[in-house]
Amino acid sequence: MTLPMGLRIAALTAACAAVLTAPLPAQAVPAFDATAPVPASGATAPTPALGPAAPAPVLRGGTDDRPLTGLAAGVRLGWEPKATGVSARLRGLSAVDRRVVWASGSAGTVIRTVDGGRTWQNVSPTGTQSLQFRDIEAFGPDSAVVLSIGEGADSRVYRTDDGGRTWAETFRNDEPRAFYDCMAFFDRRNGLAMSDPVDGRFRILSTRDGGRTWRVLPPDGMPEALPGEAGFAASGQCLTTSGGRDAWMASGGAARARVFHSGDRGRTWTVADTPIPGGDPAKGVFGLAFRGPRHGIAVGGDYRTGEASPSAAATTRDGGATWTEADAPPPAYRSGVSLLPHAALAVGPTGSDVSFTGGRSWHTFDTGSFDTVACTADLSCWASGEQGRLARLRLLR
């Protein structure tokens, strides 16, 4: 059964801290490596069915708003499904805190909760049913920016400042060869969006006013793309930021799967190969997460159903200059990744995994399908995916 509502996901972090300071029992998960910190998005529909829980790592002890008692038998992770009232595939997810979450997806869908997922409002922009909103960045209960993907004019950006009651279109792509995949913000004003290569280089869009206006950055600071190289608009996480200036961009589809890094808000970039396999249009790096300018995790693989993804995760300790394959990666393709202070979560169509070792080893705790995952500063975690599926991470007895 699930713990009482008051026992939130902060218990996970506290439990991990206890693991760091106490001797490990034989069956416990190995302690998080402090020398390699984990890098820091109408009618009620039936509650979507989640996959069965897989054997999960056991956490012991910890505190939340009040002491966690009666947990001597251990705590396990699980997803608590939320009835969203929509059937869209929700690949865009932005969790502001444990109460405010926005999600976006197919058929021009945008939804929002301001009460921790108990109720959801469909706040989709009017006249956008043909668009695929693959990424969303929210700043609070009222303000959010959403990106639609696609060739030419299908790539657009909308912004709301009244909780989704009204939306303003702030960008419409006029370059037929551009295809925007993801966006990410450094703060409430400064952000980037990335497009697949145009004239042999990835194209970067920049905003300095919270997504109200955008400009294409000069391409001369971007390394040349490989033949067939592109981004994957699978989870809204092919572009990520940390701090006020650092950004990373994931790629695939070419001979090598790579990660690009900018330390000046997208003006200039470097690029490095990763051990995540490439060599096919369906393979590459799909999701990135960073804590600070040095420590990061990349996830990906081969998105085709039934195809093996033997090296689905990698880590960096030097800001993406070099990448190391995970010792025990997730067992299959993963599209989304997010961070807690002492843990990392990865999700994909075949399951969810947790790492307490800075991304070097992963343990599957659920076999349901999700596309993306997001954790918040106040220690709540959310995941979303097909058929309006959206869930919150819980600690289970």
Automatic annotation (TrEMBL):
The keyword Amino-acid biosynthesis does not apply. It comes from the Bacteria. Residues 1-28 form the signal peptide. CDD domains: Sialidase_non-viral (cd15482). Keywords: Signal. PANTHER family: PHOTOSYSTEM II STABILITY/ASSEMBLY FACTOR HCF136, CHLOROPLASTIC (PTHR47199), PHOTOSYSTEM II STABILITY_ASSEMBLY FACTOR HCF136, CHLOROPLASTIC (PTHR47199:SF2). This is Oxidoreductase. It comes from Nonomuraea longicatena.
